[in-house]
């Protein structure tokens, strides 16, 4: 793992956007793996700026998001589809038909998971995947205990994740308890991975990921066996290293 230590959130966002932009420029039909949460908002903002001011072109790119809540329609304000629309897709020239996010509101969730996994393979696999990290070391919605061979599936969210994500909802009991998430193996199949961590709340998870045991108990630690991972971490998130 390559670790880039930066000062704070803004620098982390710029460094991450540069890494992404470099890939977009080198391969027009890039397959992007995208993440939600508070962490990548600044990176998306920087990529939008590069699109507007420097002509960074997403017209041939395809994207796959890590996860989506079960039970929320794509129009729900807290759905990850809506988040992506507001924070990125709506402001760059990516073809909406090439943006993929699991559907959390379908009858047959199992079929949706297989369909999603197959469409990643059909697109040629993910070239570059951005990840945040949960306070408990989760990646995507792969909670502690997720096996290394997992693929896209329905997962149960832990109380700690539900509480951490409650800030986006009116009340904690409105947060869905399940999600569809790419699995650990889906994420590990990406050619390149960039993990972003900012703020003191992530310090313990960052230490466990980088210095602890490689174990499914800390899903992010499993990334240490991937050949091309860059961790962009700010001073607060690195404070326990
Ligand atoms: C959610 C998402 C993850 C994200 C994590 C951290 O659970 N499914 O992909 O990395 O939260 O979120 P934040 O960046 O808001 O701290």
UniProtKB/TrEMBL annotation:
Residues 11-226 form the Glucosamine/galactosamine-6-phosphate isomerase domain. Pathway: Amino-sugar metabolism; N-acetylneuraminate degradation; D-fructose 6-phosphate from N-acetylneuraminate: step 5/5. The keyword Hydrolase applies. It catalyses: alpha-D-glucosamine 6-phosphate + H2O = beta-D-fructose 6-phosphate + NH4(+). One of its GO terms (molecular function) is identical protein binding. Gene3D superfamilies: 3.40.50.1360. CDD domains: GlcN6P_deaminase. Keywords: Carbohydrate metabolism, Hydrolase. Its EC number is 3.5.99.6. SUPFAM superfamilies: NagB/RpiA/CoA transferase-like. It holds the Pfam family Glucosamine_iso. The active site is at residues 67, 136, 138, 143. GO terms for biological process: carbohydrate metabolic process; glucosamine catabolic process; N-acetylglucosamine catabolic process; N-acetylneuraminate catabolic process. GO terms for cellular component: cytoplasm. It comes from the Bacteria. PROSITE patterns: GLC_GALNAC_ISOMERASE. NCBIfam families: nagB, PRK00443.1-4. Catalyzes the reversible isomerization-deamination of glucosamine 6-phosphate (GlcN6P) to form fructose 6-phosphate (Fru6P) and ammonium ion. Belongs to the glucosamine/galactosamine-6-phosphate isomerase family. NagB subfamily. PANTHER family: GLUCOSAMINE-6-PHOSPHATE ISOMERASE. HAMAP family: GlcN6P_deamin. This is Glucosamine-6-phosphate deaminase. The gene is nagB.
């Amino acid at each position: 793992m390559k670790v880039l230590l930066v000062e704070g959130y803004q620098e982390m966002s710029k460094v991450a956007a540069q890494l992404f932009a470099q890939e977009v420029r080198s391969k027009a039909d890039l397959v992007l793996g995208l993440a939600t949460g508070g962490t990548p908002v600044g990176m998306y903002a920087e990529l939008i700026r590069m699109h507007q001011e420097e002509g960074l072109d997403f017209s041939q790119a395809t994207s796959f998001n890590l996860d989506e809540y079960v039970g929320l329609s794509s129009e729900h304000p807290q759905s990850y589809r809506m988040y992506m629309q507001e924070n990125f897709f709506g402001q760059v020239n990516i073809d909406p038909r090439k943006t993929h996010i699991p559907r959390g509101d379908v009858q047959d969730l199992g079929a949706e998971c297989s369909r999603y996994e197959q469409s990643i393979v059909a697109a040629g696999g993910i070239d570059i995947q951005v990840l945040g990290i949960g306070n408990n070391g989760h990646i995507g919605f792969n909670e502690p205990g997720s096996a290394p061979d997992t693929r896209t599936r329905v997962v149960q969210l832990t109380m700690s994740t539900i509480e951490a994500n409650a800030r986006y909802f009116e009340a904690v009991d409105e947060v869905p308890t399940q999600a569809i998430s790419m699995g650990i193996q889906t994420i590990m199949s990406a050619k390149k991975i960039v993990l972003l961590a900012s703020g003191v709340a992530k310090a313990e998870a960052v230490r466990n990921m980088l210095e602890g045991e490689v174990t499914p108990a800390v899903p992010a630690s499993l990334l240490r066996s991937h050949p091309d991972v860059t961790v962009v971490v700010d001073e607060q998130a690195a404070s326990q290293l």
